[in-house]
Write a structure and sequence with these properties.
Layout lengths: L9 E6 L4 H12 L2 E7 L4 H10 L7 E5 L5 H15 L4 E4 L14 H29 L2 E6 L2 H5 L5 H21 L4 E8 L5 H4 L3 H9 L9 H11 L11 E4 L7
Parallel strand pairs: 1-2, 1-4, 2-3, 4-5, 5-6, 6-7
C-alpha cells in the first residue's frame, strides 16, 4: 500500500507480530483502522501470506519488514526506513521475545546472551528511532510487553525474568523523558496466555498451572491485546510509566 493510501490512518509498529499475542494485537489495530508495520526475523512471503489468510487479516494494511534484531545497525536502519516512508508513527507495541529455559547452575552463557540480546538489548534498536520520531512530532504511544515472571521471577528463567524486569525499568525511565512531549511509555505484563507455545505444555502440568491462578484459566491473547489498545488510545493520554498486569490474579504487586 502506498504512502498516499495510508495518509488518513494512524501507523503502528508491532514487533513479535506473528506470535499468538501479536496476532491478536494486529487484529485489533486493523479493526481500529491502523496501518501496521510488522517486523519479522527474515523475509518469508509464504509464511506472512498464510498468517494473514488463516487469521483473516487485511494484508493491504500490513507492511512486513525483515529485521534481524541481533544485527543492530541493519535492523535499526530498516526500522528507520519504515518510519520515514510514512513520516509519522503513532504507536509502538514491542512484543518480540524468546525463552531459553534452564536452571541458572546449568545455563550456558549462550543461553543467557541470546535471551538478553533478543528480549532486552533489542529494545534500544527498536525503540530509539521510534522514540526520536515521536519526540519530534510531539505525540506517541509506546507499549512494551513484559511478563508476570519479570515481576515475581520464575525457576529456570533467570535470563528471561531478568529481561522482562529490565523492560519495566527501561519503560519507566523512558516515560520520564517522553512526558513533556506527550509521548507515553507503558508496560503490559501478561500471565500465562493461550498461545501455541503455552498450549504445547502437557495437560498434567497445565492443570497445576491453572490451580495457581485464582480465575482458574489462562488469559486469551485478545485480553492482552485489549490492554495494549487501551494504552495507545486517547483515553490513556495521562497514563505513563505504568505496568498493567493481566494474569487473573496469579500475582498481585
Amino acid at each position: 500500500m502506498s504512502q498516499a493510501n495510508v495518509s488518513d490512518k494512524k501507523v503502528a509498529l508491532v514487533t513479535g507480530a506473528l506470535g499468538g499475542i501479536g496476532t491478536a494485537i494486529c487484529d485489533k489495530l486493523l479493526a481500529a483502522d491502523y496501518h501496521i508495520i510488522a517486523t519479522l526475523s527474515k523475509e518469508d512471503p509464504e509464511r506472512t501470506k498464510k498468517w494473514c489468510e488463516e487469521n483473516k487479516l487485511d494484508s493491504d494494511n500490513i507492511e512486513f519488514v525483515a529485521v534481524d534484531l541481533s544485527d543492530h545497525e541493519t535492523a535499526m536502519a530498516a526500522i528507520q526506513q519504515a518510519i520515514d516512508k510514512y513520516d509519522t508513527i503513532h504507536a509502538l507495541i514491542n512484543g518480540a521475545g524468546i525463552t531459553r529455559d534452564s536452571s541458572f547452575r546449568k545455563m550456558s552463557f549462550e543461553q543467557w546472551k541470546e535471551v538478553i540480546d533478543t528480549n532486552l538489548t533489542s529494545l534500544y534498536t527498536v525503540v530509539h528511532p521510534v522514540f526520536t520520531k515521536m519526540l519530534e512530532q510531539k505525540t506517541g504511544r509506546i507499549v512494551n510487553i513484559s511478563s508476570i515472571n519479570g515481576l515475581r521471577g520464575q525457576y529456570g528463567q533467570t535470563n528471561y525474568s531478568a529481561t522482562k524486569a529490565g523492560i519495566i525499568g527501561f519503560t519507566k525511565a523512558l516515560a520520564y523523558e517522553g512526558a513533556s512531549s506527550m509521548v507515553t511509555a507503558n508496560v503490559v505484563a501478561p500471565g500465562y496466555t493461550h498461545t501455541p507455545m503455552v498450549e504445547s505444555v502437557p495437560d498434567h502440568i497445565m492443570d497445576k498451572i491453572k490451580q495457581t491462578i485464582p480465575m482458574n484459566r489462562l488469559a486469551s491473547p485478545n485480553e492482552i491485546a485489549a490492554a495494549c489498545m487501551y494504552l495507545i488510545s486517547e483515553e490513556a493520554v495521562f497514563v505513563t510509566g505504568e505496568t498493567i498486569s493481566v494474569n487473573g490474579g496469579q500475582y498481585m504487586s
